[in-house]
Design a protein that fits this description.
This protein is an alpha/beta fold. The protein contains 8 helices and 8 strands. The longest helix has 15 residues.
Length: 275
């Protein structure tokens, strides 16, 4: 495995966004091409850790990337801008990360038609934002009008989705402030942004999640269904919030260790490789 770190250079000024405090990075965990194995045109995944757009969870970052790489999927960890950076700051960073990975697809033995975006909690909101808003003018005018930054799929783990009744207050306030306009609320309420341009989605959640209600996932899958977007959804009866891999590698307390919920990872690998 090769590990490479990148610093993303984003033209924030073109979107009238402040670059102060923005130092997004992309860390690559690449499956090496060996003489014995040869090239495989492997899938790839960009991982956005959660943390309410306030911090970035280590439990949902490198550990997850290394697990995907162990299954032959090139993995990248995006450490995006947080601490009340106004929307769409992090979205533009995710779009540029996708662009970088696709531009290097041949160099890194990546299938350019199977590059996915993954996110946990607030990182799930970011991943889903790229999935539903990749073709919005405020993204394409900065990144480019081509599909180079469109994900081929999204893997969403207990994602923040809505700015409505079931929203996670901290995540939404951190990207649009405490007194947003109706238009801003609508734009970050991702169940309202699903269209026929949205890529396929793998999504999972715990029914007893007391931090980000499972209705976030239910409303999003309803919108996917209404727009005839392929999706796979797993809702586990218990497990709370923030389980990550749901094993002792990423658990912060024993309650995160759940062999049933841990199956989401193998299912996501199957889903990615079957696309």
């Amino acid at each position: 495995m090769s590990i490479i770190d990148f610093t993303l250079d984003i033209p924030y000024e073109k979107a009238n966004l402040s670059a102060d405090g923005c130092k997004p990075t992309l860390k690559a965990f690449l499956v090496d091409v060996s003489n014995e194995i040869g090239t495989r045109n492997r899938p790839a995944i960009i991982i956005c850790p959660g943390g309410g757009y306030e911090f970035l969870s280590d439990r949902e970052a490198d550990y997850v990337a290394m697990r995907y790489a162990a299954f032959g999927i090139h993995a990248f960890v995006l450490r995006y801008s947080i601490c009340s950076k106004k929307y769409p700051t992090a979205l533009l960073e995710a779009a540029f990360a996708m662009k970088i990975v696709r531009e290097h697809a041949k160099d890194w033995d990546i299938n350019p038609d199977n590059i996915n975006i993954c996110g946990f909690s607030a990182g799930g909101h970011l991943a889903a934002s790229l999935a539903v808003n990749w073709n919005k003018p405020y993204v394409t005018e900065i990144v480019g009008s081509q599909d180079i930054h469109k994900p081929n799929g999204a893997v969403l783990s207990y994602p923040v989705i809505t700015s409505g009744k079931y929203r996670h207050d901290g995540s939404i306030i951190n990207i649009i402030g405490e007194n947003p306009t109706e238009a801003e609320l609508c734009e970050v309420s991702l169940e309202k942004q699903v269209s026929d341009a949205t890529p396929p989605v793998f999504i999972w959640h715990c029914a007893d999640d007391g931090c980000v209600p499972v209705m976030n996932t239910i409303d999003f899958t309803k919108a996917l269904s209404e727009n005839q977007i392929p999706f796979e959804c797993h809702i586990y009866p218990w497990g709370g919030h923030g389980g990550s891999l749901h094993d002792d590698v990423t658990s912060s307390y024993d309650g995160h260790i759940n062999p049933v919920n841990a199956k989401w990872f193998d299912e996501s690998v199957r889903w990615i490789k079957s696309k």
